[in-house]
Amino acid sequence: MEKAGVSILYKTNHMGAVGISEAIVTIPDVFRSFDRIRSYVLASKPDVAVLIGYDFFHLVLSRWLRARKVLTISYFPPQIWIWKGIAGIIARSYDWILTSFEKEELTYREAGGQTAFVGHYLRDRIETVDPTKREEARKTLGLGNGKCVVGLLPGSRRHELNRMMPVLLDVARRILSRDPHAEFLLPIADRCFEMGIKYQIKRAGLNRCIHLSNESRTAMPACDLVILCSGTVTLEAALMGLPMIILYQVSLSTWITVDLLEMTGLIASKTVGIPNLLAGRKIVPEFIQSEVVPTEIADEAWAILQDSGRQAQMKKDLHSVCSALGEKGGVERAARLILERVIQKHRCRGQ
Asked: Which domain holds residue 78?
């Protein structure tokens, strides 16, 4: 956004967190950013606020903005597979909700919200990987074509890296015990993590077979299989048609909360992978919480790598899921609709 010309009032990349206890440390920054936004709004009186992601923060901010007659539009609203139980509260908190998934649009519309399905922006950025593209990606990264290549994606947040790096390195070691020629690609989400990641790889004695990359979308097309932390990257892998294994692990307090939410019916299940949530069934394997065991993950990875029929079925299922993400041009549709609303608001003022 900054490269596109947006003035950043408060950088929030370091505030990303998955879970409850994981988010507590960000509270001081949350208050500082809210205060900065409030001061800006009171001084500049904007016509519209486009609130992207960041579920509860934007829920509170939107209500504050609406009280000051600022048109609020939610783009990438709270995910319905987590927050369906409070869809009505969410729908009433925004003037308009633009969704990237068809199921979201239906849920928020039925909950009383003003909605529009615009499609997912990744449709414009990611294409299915075929054998030719895979070979080209491997040449670009200096990998030998024909070898088994596995992607390791431990997440983009510090607490995810702390949990997942040891697991993924152990998984890599176990795959190597079965195929000494296997190679691994590990994209680094943020350069600030690079030194720590390199140290862990060297300490594990895997620096010869694990290749680092600064861009996941460059590295992933070269892979036969990706083992990744749950998040948007699972949808990227789905659009590429890559067989995958999804990992998810949070603090005990967060997991107890998830248990309570499931028991009260606020969430339907403990499924975490976006491809599985969109499909309504497990089309790719998930290892959640106590199931995140290197031996079992490595066994599953090896089973997929050795079974071409299973790989083909997974790719077919992923293609079916991705066809429900709408046509290309989602960002342009969202921008056009937002501008139309702003123009309509000005016309109403003029009358």
From this structure: 46-120+327-350
